[in-house]
Design brief:
Length: 58
Amino acid sequence: MAVDLGRVEQAEDELEQWLVDQAEAGVPEIVLVGLLHDYADDIEQLGYVPRMWGRNDR
């Protein structure tokens, strides 16, 4: 499967903006880092990104 670098850059930009928005809203950076680590661990363990994140998935 070919990777659309434009979409990757867009996703990166959107993630960065979301992180900035959360930090500006008062969410501590350490909490944001923890969330990213948890999701990265889940994705690494599963081997894919679930299309829906349910309580049973985490």
